[in-house]
Design a protein that fits this description.
7 strands, 209 residues, 7-stranded mixed sheet, globular, Rossmann fold, single chain, 6 helices, binds S-adenosylmethionine, alpha/beta
Length: 209
């Protein structure tokens, strides 16, 4: 069996340039008071931060996704994770869900640019505006959430919701689950994030009953 290929530095440089060009003029860091209130109303946090392109490439190599996978980014910001997954993976579907309207609409614009430039490998790419706690996620095989700023209570709610999904589901979270329920920790990767180098990403797998 051959493992996933490691992206070469030159490919990563090209990808970083392409993503920077597509996301030029857009930033998720500043949002309106109304947007911040809408996110807080879900009990989630509007605090922003991103995984770097290289770190996400490393995570995707580790996950080694295949044509049956469905990847969700819960709290997808301006959609950079969805974009990179769509540009570099060969999977069934990628979905981002974001509550802050301005971030969501930037993500839609960026993805539209990428589609127009024919840069997307994954045809079924979706960006949804709303509270991910209210969305059905039944088709998910991998869920990513950059959850460092989420409260413990919010993480528990998310964990309860995800516990109803199919066994084998992988959850990648930047915040550790203190109450993991049916999730078993499989790994802990140290990857650079926009706010800290070598920041932990916890990989959990949902076990059956
Ligand atoms: C740290 S940012 C992550 C951005 C993106 N995933 C990335 O790595 O580039 C977390 C995002 O989650 C969003 N968020 C927080 N609670 C949410 C909720 N309940 N439903 C949808 N989005 C939420 C915030 O607005 C914020 O944009």
């Amino acid at each position: 069996m051959t493992g996933p290929t490691r992206a070469q530095p030159s490919e990563l440089r090209r990808l970083r340039r392409q993503i920077a060009r597509l996301c030029d003029d857009f930033s998720g860091y500043l949002i309106s008071g109304a947007d911040a209130r809408a996110v807080r109303a879900t009990k989630g946090s509007p605090t922003y931060g991103e995984i770097t392109v290289t770190s996400l490439a490393r995570l995707l190599e580790y996950l080694d996704l295949g044509p049956d996978d469905v990847f969700y980014d819960l709290g997808s910001g301006i959609g950079k994770v969805v974009l990179q997954v769509a540009m570099t993976c060969d999977i069934r579907r990628v979905v981002g869900i974001e509550m802050a309207h301005s971030r969501h609409s930037a993500a839609v614009d960026i993805l539209t640019r990428a589609r127009a430039a024919d840069l997307l490998n994954v045809r079924d790419c979706r960006l949804e505006h709303g509270n991910f706690l209210d969305r059905p996620l039944a088709d998910a095989t991998v869920i990513y959430t950059c959850s460092t700023a989420f409260s413990e209570t919010f993480m528990r709610k998310l964990c309860d919701k995800l516990s109803g999904l199919r066994p084998g589901l992988l959850l990648v979270s930047s915040r550790a689950l203190l109450t993991a329920g049916r999730f078993v920790q499989r790994d802990r990767l140290l990857l650079d994030m926009s706010w800290k180098r070598r920041s932990p990403l916890y990989i959990y797998e949902l076990e059956g009953d």
